[in-house]
Amino acid sequence: MRIIFGLGNPEDKYRLTRHNAGFLAVDEIAHFYNTGWNFNKKFKSDICEIAGREGGNGLTLLVKPRTYMNNSGEAVSAVLNYYRLLPKRLGFVPVRNAPLADTLTVIHDELDIELGKYKISRDSRSAGHRGAQSVIDHIKTKNFTRVRIGIKTPALEKIPGDKFVLQKFSPEEIKTVNNLIGGLIQKELELK
Predict the structure, then answer these.
(1) How many distinct structural domains can be found in the chain?
(2) Is the pTM of this model over 0.85?
(3) Which of 76, 89, 114, 141 is the most buried (most CB within 10 A)?
(4) 87 contact partners, CB below 8 Å, separation of at least 6
(5) Are the beta carbons of 76 and 138 closer than 8 angstroms?
(6) Which structural domain, as residue segments, surrounds residue 153?
(7) What is the distance of C-alpha 128 from the center of its chain?
(8) Dihedral sign (CA 104, 108, 111, 117)
(9) CA angle (134 as vertex; 126, 161 as ends), nearest 5
(10) 3-class DSSP state for residue 77?
(11) Which residues contact 54 (CB under 8 A, 6 or more apart)?
(12) Using CA atoms, how far apart are residues 21 and 93, in angstroms rounded to an integer?
């Protein structure tokens, strides 16, 4: 099983903001596989299942937390608890210090990376991203995969980062992000 979280803010007014790059990514993955979203109250999230293809990786669960970005860890923890995927010290899986990097992927925006680029990291600190820090705090490990989608543009030099992330992407920027996500689906996320 693979679980991919896209981080963002749930209200419609945030739909095309830079901070919702994670939501845009999982929406594009769901669209690519022609599947839809359902709300799951227990997980505080919208959920989308992608059945394993022949010779594929089995079930993939796409998740968009309905918690706000800075509380993303609540939803991640709820899903991992349900599937008993948290480290043994929390009493949920049979393997001590089980690595989650092959199971859990978190996709989010990144101010330090240029628009149109991305970085994948595993077992790394949040680097100041509050959504990623919330995940780390709630699941008590940083041993998961993060796909950091670059949103940095020259406009960032003119306004504070917390205001910049809540601005909407321009139509040209959306094209750039969607092209990037298309490449991620094919090359990095191995959902073929």
Answers:
(1) 1
(2) yes
(3) 76
(4) 93, 96, 97, 98, 140, 141
(5) yes
(6) 2-188
(7) 16
(8) positive
(9) 60
(10) helix
(11) none
(12) 31
Given 19, 108, 129, 138, which residue is catalytic? 19
CA distance 29 to 63: 11
Give the span between the Cα atoms of 78 and 131, in whole angstroms: 15
- Domain of 30, CATH number, reads 3.40.50.1470
**What tokens appear for 29 in the block?**
């993955």
How many whole angstroms separate alpha carbon 44 and alpha carbon 58?
24
- Separation of alpha carbons 187 and 33, rounded Å: 15
Q: Please write the tens of the pLDDT for every residue from 57-100.
A: 578 899 999 999 999 999 999 999 898 887 655 544 444 445 78
Burial class (CB in 10 A: 0-12, 13-18, 19+), 42: exposed
Instruction: Yes or no: say if 54 and 38 are a contact pair by the CB < 8 Å rule.
Output: no
Active site residue 138: no
Query: CA–CA separation, 28 vs 169, rounded Å?
Result: 16
> Which has more confidence, 182 or 24?
24
Q: Tell me which residue of 112, 117, 17, 130 sits closest to 70, measured CA to CA.
A: 130
